[in-house]
Write a structure and sequence with these properties.
Belongs to the class-V pyridoxal-phosphate-dependent aminotransferase family. Csd subfamily. The protein is of the alpha/beta class. The protein has 15 helices and 16 strands. The two termini are 36 Å apart.
Length: 433
Amino acid sequence: MTLPFDVDAVRADFPILETEIDGHPLVYLDSGATSQKPRAVLDAERDFLERANSAVHRGAHTLAAEATELFEDARVTVAEFVGAEPEQLVWTSGATAGLNLVAGSLGYAGRLREGDEIVVTEAEHHANLIPWQELAARTGARLRHIPVLDDGTLDMHAAADLIGERTKVVAFPHVSNVLGIVNPVAKLVTLARGAGALTVLDACQSAPHLALDLPASGVDLAVFSGHKIHGPYGIGALWGRDEVLESLPPFTFGGSMITTVTLDKAEYLPPPQRFEPGTQPVSQAVAFAAALRWLGAHDLDAARAHEAALEKRMRDGLRSIDGIRLLGDTDAADRVALQAFTVEGVHAHDVGQFLDSRGVAARVGHHCAQPLHRRFGITASVRASAAIHTTQAEIDTFLDAVSGVRGFFGVASPTGAPGAEAGVGAGTAGVNA
């Protein structure tokens, strides 16, 4: 049964939204960093731990069998959410672990050597940059990047020039965690396939907001995290095409991933178990599946239309405030309801503290994307990111608070380019995520 989308009914499922900050109702606009959890998720994890807690794939007793069944049922649910088969879904502790698994496995497999190239974008989260930096350094491969244009979109002319016969991997975000812009997956996949390169998609910011069909997208591998889709911490997934996963050796080693072990060597299970050694995040997987079942019970087309309206209201409202510089300010690209900005003359951390005093929770810092901030000539920004439970009234509260920032700090009206002084002054170095 699909529930009609009613934002007030959705909000009632989130206990934390009843919180007050300094006497103000909480306006949570930091879902891009971590999402809030509905009761169904909290109850699912608690119920597992109280009723079925046991190691999976390791015992014949009743609890072990029940835990294993719940664990593998969760894999089916999460795989279905991205249009995949369960054997194509590897459990990880999060997207960062999944990307390190892929980069490390490629290194073990000897798939890259001196003279090969890895292509990323200038808009990468550090989790989809540093593993490739390290792989390039260890193999002698060259790391190259697709530039970001002034409007925040990728320079696809440069991409066509960069991706060529030496390219072995093309890794890129589906949605920028700073700009909120949906990148042209099909075009990048076409370029990569033409070069015979492997494609790796960071779907962390798209999975909560867009309908995903990873097999149909054309990418070879993709990662996403549970805690950004109303699930718990400590759980994520790596999806891969059958032939790609089968071609990769394991990157971490231990029990539960093997068929036969002698004192001299080991033989490994097929994917996904090949990549899942040791004790698994069982309660987290069960709760992750509960999050996706909860989400899927709603009219997601209506929910996405609601989020699109929030995005427009937020961006149009920020545009109307003096001294605001939007990062990736373009109407020409698909977007999710996530926007980073600077306030002229006021450091991002000071903006964040002012917003917090009004009950508005927004992200400040470099958002684990220092190169992208450097591209725009700043060290830090403020990021507001909405979710299925966000209301238009909350966006208005946020905009009203932003409009009061410069007056509170006694900053004069803009005299030069918007944001000219952003990123300097008060505050500390940028924070993560």
